[in-house]
Fold this sequence. Notes:
This protein is of the alpha/beta class. The chain is 21% helix and 35% strand. It has helices at residues 15-33, 48-55, 107-116, and strands at 2-4, 7-13, 38-43, 63-73, 80-85, 95-103, 123-131, 144-148, 154-155, 171-174. The strands form two sheets. The protein has a six-stranded mixed beta sheet. It is globular, with a radius of gyration of 17 Å. 30% of the residues are buried. The site of xanthosine-5'-monophosphate (XMP) has 16 residues, from strand 6, helix 3 and strand 9.
Amino acid sequence: MIEINNKRFEVYLRSKEIESLVINMANRINQDYKGKDSVLIGILNGSFVFIADLVRQLDFDPILTFTKLASYDGTQSTGQVDELIGLKENLKGKHVIIIEDIVDTGNTLEKIVEIFKGKEVASFEIVTLLFKSCVYKKGIDVKYFGLDIPDKFVIGYGLDYDGRGRTLKDLYSLKKS
Ligand code: XMP
Ligand code: MG
């Protein structure tokens, strides 16, 4: 049990179990992307630990890059504009794999998919360690996920609560008080 800012968290998934999820996902990705001109795009910050473990199980050599989703008020009447900070690679004709830590409602994913429209990629898939299918509201296919979890708030293994908990080796879930 750990406590962060008066919230208590209990172990949800041990690092050994996370490791086997990561290996299973990497095996599938290795099979599907062997020989393809691929670009892996890690969505920071939460996915950084997962990405580091995942890429060391890959047996092909993709381009690996990182980005962060930013939203700002557009000057047009359309309202909010989303962009992926620092993404400079030309993705035309590439097999793009987005790497996320967790897909929850899918709002973030939807914004990302919107940004990739018109980039003329060869293919586009999502990899996420955790997937809350019970609250997922979008139609976008999440092809590769490590574990389908109930609607719990989780931290550790890169994921944070108020910026804390990212360095924990196991995953923890918020304890209901
Ligand atoms: P949506 O709802 O847009 O959420 O799919 C995706 C983003 O929200 C964050 N998120 C979490 N972060 N523990 C976290 O530390 C969680 O349980 C959690 N659920 C969502 C995360 O940044 C993710 O990319
Ligand atoms: Mg995230």
